[in-house]
Design brief:
- The chain is α/β, with parallel strands linked by helices.
- The protein has eleven helices and twelve strands.
- It has a single domain, classed as NAD(P)-binding Rossmann-like Domain (Rossmann fold).
- About 40% of the residues lie in helices and about 20% in strands.
- The strands form three sheets. It has a seven-stranded parallel beta sheet with strand order 3-2-1-4-5-6-10, sandwiched between helices. It has a three-stranded mixed beta sheet with strand order 7-9-11.
- Helix 1 crosses helix 7, helix 2 packs parallel to helix 4 and helix 6 runs parallel beside helix 8.
- The protein binds nicotinamide-adenine-dinucleotide (NAD) and 2'deoxy-thymidine-5'-diphospho-alpha-D-glucose.
- The site of nicotinamide-adenine-dinucleotide has 30 residues, from helix 1, helix 4, strand 5 and strand 7.
- The site of 2'deoxy-thymidine-5'-diphospho-alpha-D-glucose has 20 residues, from helix 3, helix 6 and strand 8.
- Its EC number is 4.2.1.46.
- It catalyses: dTDP-alpha-D-glucose = dTDP-4-dehydro-6-deoxy-alpha-D-glucose + H2O.
Length: about 325
Amino acid sequence: MNLLVTGAAGFIGSRYVRMLLAAGAPQITVLDKLTYAGTLDNLELDHPALEFVQGDIRDAELVDKLVAGADQLVHFAAESHVDRSILGADDFVLTNVVGTQTLLDAALRHGLESFVHVSTDEVYGSIAEGSAGEERLLRPSSPYSASKASSDLIALSYHHTHGLDVRVTRCSNNYGPHQFPEKVIPLFVTNLLDGGNVPLYGEGLNVRDWLHVDDHCRGVELVRTRGRAGEVYNIGGGTELTNKELTGLLLDACGADWDRVRQVEDRKGHDLRYSVDWSKARDELGYRPAHDFTTGLAETVAWYRENRAWWEPLKRRVERGHA
Ligand code: NAD
Ligand code: DAU
């Protein structure tokens, strides 16, 4: 079995590939453009079951060649940072929407067995109370989440219209090792480890559901191996926290005080809360998160403490405006 995985030089895709390789994986080909968010340091490049190809998911010729040699596809590649999408949406539409459609067309041409599209809980928009089930209306707020909602719906349309075996996952906020130091947890931890301050948006009352990246990866794998064509599966069940509560935990973990927190201007159009109902994945696939948040967060902070060589060059590139 040949599995094509897009975007696996990034945070979640690389953890997914590591998990499969550790379990005695099928042959895996990774297609990744190596944008600012992707690094080869995330991949075990010398593993005999892994092939890496640098390229853009919008490169129809390259995509056609790689899909022709694959049986299944798991699609992680995306522009993934909300703040960047507010500064400029071009790359979000091009990669997340057009790139996904390029992959879907190739999958259709070559009759792929299955196509797992990794979407996000942000497609539901802000959830005032309760949790969003898979049937809820999509109300994305940011250019990022709108581009993800577009690709999510285009992927499902290829199932409805053409009968392609498409499965969609919508997951909550991931944390863990190898996350690019622009997202709130690695940004705050690396700033604190560097002796700096942390920028808390607005009042810090926005709520996110934090799930360990390896739980997300197990959920994606369950969808690939046991899911059904044309179905959407929410993946959640982490720990809901306000950003203020999360900041307190990160300060404690880094041995820092509240004087290191700068309350800064809020994110434009900032969604107050995300929450997904993941009972379908639990009942149908046997999905259940395994990581306890307190332990997972402590291990994550320890990982950043011990792996400066991984994040320092990435952070310096951002500071110099090269990422
Ligand atoms: P990431 O930004 O860490 O990694 C994205 C990867 O995609 C990078 O390696 C990058 O080089 C690659 N890429 C970007 N544009 C590309 C293109 N045009 N062609 C080929 N490769 C390209 O992202 P992540 O946090 O690992 O997220 C992975 C996926 O999971 C995304 O689709 C994201 O929307 C989704 N997701 C993320 C989270 C989260 O909390 N991070 C939660 C739910 C869903
Ligand atoms: O919910 C899933 C989504 O989670 C994924 O689809 C996205 O790819 C991923 O980036 C993440 O989006 P968020 O916007 O929730 O994550 P981020 O880490 O950027 O922000 C988390 C919260 O922290 C959010 O309420 C904004 C706040 N924040 C963020 C940054 C970067 C701050 O207060 N200060 C900051 O500097």
